Amino acid sequence: MDALYPRLLVTRFAECFAFYRAVLPALTGAVLDKGTPEGPYANWDVDEQAVLALYDRAAMAADLGTAHLPARPAADAQDAAMIVLRVDDVDAALALCLSSGGALLAPATDRPQWGPTLRSAHLRDPEGHLIELQSY
After folding, report:
1. What span, in angstroms and rounded, lies between the C-alpha atoms of 55 and 42?
2. Edge-to-edge, what's the strand order for the sheet holding 7-10?
3. One pLDDT digit (tens) per residue for the chain, 136 residues
4. Which of 7, 113, 119, 130 gets the highest tally of CB atoms within 10 A of its CB?
5. 10 Å Cβ neighbour count for 46?
6. Which of 88, 83, 101, 79 is nearest to 23 (CA)?
7. What DSSP character marks residue 79?
8. 50: Cβ contacts below 8 Å, ≥ 6 apart
């Protein structure tokens, strides 16, 4: 049973699909379980447990009857959630993410104030979701 996993609601499904298809196997060992770039749904699993799912935002809004509402909060708002991926090598993981369509927010940096051996980097996926890459 999948206990808990994020499902990202996206408007740029094909771009997000390509990004996560490129980075999740290398960074987490996740494999595509369902879905195609055409959408509206895709999910990646590790050991038959969901790690991440994508769902077309318009399809979800139609299912919920909320298509008349604004699609997303203001672009200048602070983030409300973040996906954190623990990786072996933050620099290599960041390079993979950036070459796969991610957008850099903060370069790989040692952050001893967060943990004695913590190194992290921050980026956005093609839809703008905040991602932290971290290693200890």
Report:
1. 7
2. 7-10, 49-56, 41-46, 31-35
3. 566 889 999 999 999 999 999 999 999 999 999 999 999 999 999 999 999 999 999 999 988 888 888 876 656 777 778 999 999 999 999 999 999 999 999 999 999 999 999 999 999 999 999 999 999 9
4. 119
5. 15
6. 101
7. P
8. 2, 5, 33, 43, 44
